Amino acid sequence: MSTTRRSLLTALLAGGLSPELMALGLPGFAAEAPELAPLRGLDGEGLDARDVAIEGRLPAGLSGRYFRNGPGLMQRAGQRYRHWFDGDGLLQAWTLADGRVSHRARFVQTQKFRAEQDAGRFLLPAFGTAIAAERPVRGPDSVNVANTSVLLQGDSLYALWEGGSAYELDPATLATRGVKVWSDALRGMPFSAHPKVEADGTVWNFGTANGRLAVYQIGANGQVRRHAVLDVQAPAMLHDFAVSQRHLVFLLAPVTMDWAAVRAGQPMVDAMRWGAGQPTRVLVVDKADFSKRRVYEMPASHVFHFGNAWDDGRLLRVDYVQGVPLPEFNVAAEQIMRGQRTTRDVSTPRVLEIDLQTGRLSVTARDEAVEFPVVDPRVVAQRHRFVWYPTAVDTGVRWGFNGLMRLDIDSGARERFSFGHDVVVEEHVLVPRPGSTREGEGWLVGMGYDMKRRRSFLSVFNAMRLADGPLARAWLPYAVPYGFHGRFYPA
Amino acid sequence: MMKKTLATAALIALLPLGSQAADVTLEIEGLDASRTAGAALLVGIYTEAGQWLNNAASGQRFALDAAVGGKVTVVLKNLPQGPLALSLYQDANGNGKLDTNAMGMPTEPYGFSNNAFGQYGPPKFEQAVLTPTAGVPVKVRLN
After folding, report:
1. Which of A140, A489, B134, B142 has the CB geometry, 3.0–4.6 Å to B21, for a possible disulfide?
2. Cα(A255)–Cα(A275) distance, rounded to whole angstroms?
3. What integer is the mean pLDDT of A417-427?
4. Count of Cβ atoms closer than 10 Å to residue A31 Cβ
5. Longest dimension (CA), chain B
6. Is the confidence at residue A409, as pLDDT, over 90?
7. How far is CA A84 from CA A39, A103, A128, A331, A484, in A?
């Protein structure tokens, strides 16, 4: 027996899981890392659960729909995607009404998904998996898996990816309507999975292709107000950005694409080159005039996610989570797809301050392992104080987060809660309490997976009292593949 | 090289049949059904590998108002004799060109005879070339 296996057994026994149960139940995939079991993925069918069992008490004022997206299908005909980001988008809808909870999940019927579902095997290349194209690849939408996040506008629910169009779905049934065309000029343009929605409903978003950066301003009614394409030598991968009162803020990491390697058959992710000696450029674009922009430089750093940004015209403050350099992240994202624990993949909080007059940058770093930062939707592009994250508290060799953290970025104070060894915590979003006005007054709502019960759950916390533990948990009768991002829309 | 020789041999074998087909029925699917009113199908006909996607031997245009469910059937008339390759697109806004967005990506459905396609680029002439056979429609799916 290997050391890893023995220490795992010890850990499991300490957690109360009997060897008999382990011998009976654990499937081959991720047998030595049960926290990774949900990454096995689904087979392309949807999920439904009505009147989900509730533990604790759901707050009376918490009512609405919580949509989440993530990679849900990982393999076909014995072939498995190599990278976590490759999985086909599984859209989930939790409905909370009158003290009852229901859950539904449907795969986004992308062109790629439909063709491959019919064929029973993969037909097209994926971001991180070299699959010879058996159908024409005409652009990003030919391989769009719509698996990263969601946005609701009126009666349109969007499944968002990074490199291509949004897919539009019916929010009531999760039936796919098709590729979203915001306007004729924006047909087929990349629309990132991290649009920022201001309190008045204004949506800001961006997309990158071939070194160009497109920026969009869209009204709450879905009408495109402004868009522009900026020649800024955008990196081969740009996942998120931040919006303040006056600016759009991008961290342009030194990532380039080796197209010769792609043409020679390498998957995109292996053809990305990380320029460790080059800077990460901080691009600040004037919201009122996209042609007004400034570029600052900081040491090479890789960032997936931002919390928020605010500025007073002189000082611009941005908070984000800094990850390991992209090549190391990709190794980890491939390890977990094989059901193996990662060696080194820790991302930690940062606050960047830019003095807009002197151009001086300063970064404050913290060392908690976090990801998926969220802020109160009422403070997007406004001055904010709190950021919430899933976090890892004494997880040892185990993969994934097991707790939640609220950080006061003004004082540096933090509050945490840990579910312990047996739970993997996913992104939690802040839902304002109806009638409240203060930042943070509300609930933190998200999902998790209990590896002993092998079931996924919805958890609800008082966002300002995380340490009290969850107010309620709604237990699904099944496990759901880990998702990426969601949004809650109050009834 | 081997591939090219084989392709040439196959073409020569088909020539006698092809030389009698002046008109060819073209069955198209994969049109953007939301953009067929006032739109046209533009077909470029190429007979020389050296001219492929540069200089069409001839071109034909068909209104798409009769298209149903993303499909339409048209007849290419007076085709040059012998092997040829087709490049087609749905001119959705009737402006006579294949439109692209600000990132340079085509925004109108297009395709090639034999449903040929390349990896990260257009197909080669040899992939798209065919010799029409009298009475046998040519089917192309646009994407």
Report:
1. B134
2. 6
3. 98
4. 14
5. 47
6. yes
7. 8, 23, 8, 10, 10
Task: Answer whether B102 sits within 8 Å of A185, measured CB to CB.
Answer: yes
Q: Is A186's CB within 8 Å of B101's CB? A: yes
Backbone phi, psi, residue A139, to 5°: 170, -175
> Global pTM?
0.91
Contact A187 B107 (CB under 8 A): yes
Contact of A63 with A490, CB cutoff 8 Å = yes
Token readout for A193 is 């999975």
Structure tokens at A382: 């406004």
Q: Is A185 in contact with B105 (Cβ distance < 8 A)?
A: no
Alpha helices in A306-400 (DSSP H): 326-337
Sequence-ordered alpha helix ranges (H) in A324-429: 326-337
**CB-hemisphere CA count at 13 Å for A400?**
29
Q: How far are the Cα atoms of A302, A490, B7 from residue A298, in angstroms, in the given order?
A: 11, 39, 56
The pLDDT assigned to B119 comes to 78
d(Cα A298, Cα A59) in Å, to the nearest integer?
Answer: 44
ipTM field: 0.86
Torsion of CA A253, A259, A261, A267, to 10 degrees: 70
In chain B, what is the straight-line distance between the N-terminal and C-terminal CA atoms, in Å? 30
Residues of chain A contacting B120 with CB distance shorter than 8 Å? 137, 259, 262-263
Give the H or E element holding residue A115: helix A111-119
Interface check A61 vs B, CB under 8 A: no
Across A31-48, average pLDDT: 95
Q: What is the DSSP string of A253-296?
A: -SEEE-HHHHHTT--HHHHEEE-TTSPEEEEEEESS-TT-EEEE
Rg (CA), chain B: 15
Chain B residues with CB-CB distance to A132 below 8 A? 119
| Cα A65 from Cα A63, distance rounded (Å) | 7
Q: 3-class SS at A362?
A: strand
Q: Cα separation of A386 and A399, whole Å?
A: 26
State the Cα–Cα distance between residues A222 and A153, nearest whole angstrom.
7
pLDDT at A276: 86
Would you say A375 and A386 are in contact if contact means Cβ atoms under 8 Å apart?
yes
How far is the C-alpha of A209 from the C-alpha of A360, rounded, in Å? 30
Q: Using 50, 70 and 90 to split pLDDT, how confident is the model at B136?
A: very high
pLDDT score of A75: 96
Determine whether the interchain pair B143/A185 forms a contact, defined as Cβ–Cβ distance below 8 Å: no
Q: Contacts of residue B111 in chain A, CB cutoff 8 Å?
A: 136
Which residues from B are below 8 Å from A262, CB to CB? 120
Mean pLDDT of A41-66: 97
